[in-house]
Write a structure and sequence with these properties.
By secondary structure, the chain is an alpha+beta fold. The chain has three domains: about 120 residues, DNA Primase, Chain A (Alpha-Beta Complex); about 80 residues, DNA primase, catalytic core, N-terminal domain (DNA primase DNAg catalytic core, N-terminal domain, Alpha-Beta Complex); about 120 residues, Dna Topoisomerase Vi A Subunit, Chain: A, domain 2 (3-Layer(aba) Sandwich), CATH 3.40.1360.10. It is about 30% helix and about 20% strand. The chain is built from twelve helices and 15 strands. The protein has a six-stranded mixed beta sheet with strand order 10-12-11-13-14-15, with helices on both faces. The chain has a five-stranded antiparallel beta sheet with strand order 1-2-3-4-5. It has a four-stranded antiparallel beta sheet with strand order 6-7-8-9. The radius of gyration is 23 Å and the shape is globular. It starts with a helix and ends in a 17-residue tail after the last strand.
């Protein structure tokens, strides 16, 4: 491809690929309206009772899909991955090849075009969006799973607030005995985490503790109380569920905190870091406090317990007692291994 073609990716090329994909996925009654190709929704999910001609559309300028009936939406890569039953990570290289983008291009051109294709410039990232009713398949139980209420002592009101579900055997998604943790962002359901409890011996994914929904925007979102001015900052949604009845608490869904997550965390007036006593937890504390120190009042909980225990394992009084004794981030130091103690709560 010529440099000008690489820089601008002709709109007709995008349109032709979208039409090709619509035919591949069995779309009918395709109608063009502006930059949109309207058609019947072909997603392999429940939500339609007839052909729903024109209910869905793919915008070939922004490369974004949305259906007004079933409520699903996402990027072009997500849309293809759902139809083909593949991971988005497999679809993205296929898209680059389809558009004629090769490694021989100058890196600054390649990076720009890849970003324009996979994450159009009209918005930095197109999150998948799901209709909230998809959670019904995992919430149709008369009680919450005993692992949550008995083993982890999570109050039922917290589980109900965050619409926690359970998949005993869901062949559509390949879930076996998994807790479903929905994640909402800007009032939209953008995905979920499926946390394993157990799995059959022939399940190749039984050893994977968390399975995320397709194209889950983990690097962009946070979980918990997203409106408070002061909150405890933790790694795991389980810690949020265990203690949010006591104090505002927000999780980064792991110890690797991204630049996009940091930009969101700047909205808080005060954050109190409460991490596990391990290298990953300490690294997160240093990263977050260094990045936010000029904009957010930062404190750190001096967690005395070994890395076998995170905030979700602590009882209410122990958790709040440690939070109230948090020290300024500037004077915090990691707890030496030989000084960490076993939690006896």
């Amino acid at each position: 491809m010529e440099t000008t073609e690489v820089n601008f990716l002709p709109i007709e090329q995008k349109k032709d690929l979208c039409l090709e994909l619509l035919h591949e996925f069995g779309a009918t009654r395709i109608k063009r309206s502006g930059y949109e190709l309207q058609h019947n929704c072909t997603l392999p999910f429940a939500g339609h009772t007839d052909n729903n001609s024109g209910a869905a559309s793919i915008n070939y300028k922004t490369l974004k899909f949305h259906c007004y009936v079933c409520g699903y939406g996402g990027s072009l890569a997500w849309w293809i991955a759902v139809h083909r039953g593949e991971d988005v990570g497999i679809i993205e290289p296929w898209l680059k090849k389809k558009f004629g983008i090769g490694s021989s291009l100058p890196l600054h051109h390649l990076g720009k075009i890849i970003d324009d294709i996979l994450h159009p410039p009209s918005e930095k990232r197109i999150f998948p969006t799901y209709p909230e009713r998809i959670l019904n398949r995992w919430n149709d139980w008369g009680m919450f799973h005993p692992y949550l209420t008995e083993d982890r002592a999570i109050p039922e009101e917290n589980l109900a607030r965050f619409k926690i579900g359970y998949a005993d055997q869901d062949d559509d998604f390949g879930y076996h005995q998994r807790i479903i943790v929905p994640v909402f962002w800007m009032d939209h359901l953008v995905g979920w985490q499926a946390r394993a409890l157990a799995g059959p011996e022939d399940d190749p994914y039984a050893h994977i503790k968390y399975k995320n929904s397709l194209d889950f925007p983990r690097d962009y979102v946070a979980y918990g109380d997203l409106t408070a001015r002061r909150a405890v900052l933790v790694e795991s949604p389980m810690s949020v569920l265990r203690h949010i009845h006591q104090t505002p608490i927000v999780a980064t869904l792991g110890s690797n905190v991204t630049a996009d997550q940091l930009r969101f965390l700047e909205r808080y007036d005060e954050l109190i870091c409460f991490n596990e006593n391990d290298k990953a937890g300490w690294k997160m504390i240093r990263h977050v406090t260094n990045a936010l120190a000029r904009k957010v009042r930062m404190s750190v909980v001096e967690n005395p317990y070994t890395k076998d225990y995170d905030p979700a394992d602590l009882d209410d009084d122990t958790f709040m007692g440690l939070v109230e004794e948090a020290v300024p981030a500037s004077v915090w130091t990691p707890k030496p291994w030989d000084q960490q103690i076993k939690y006896e709560g």
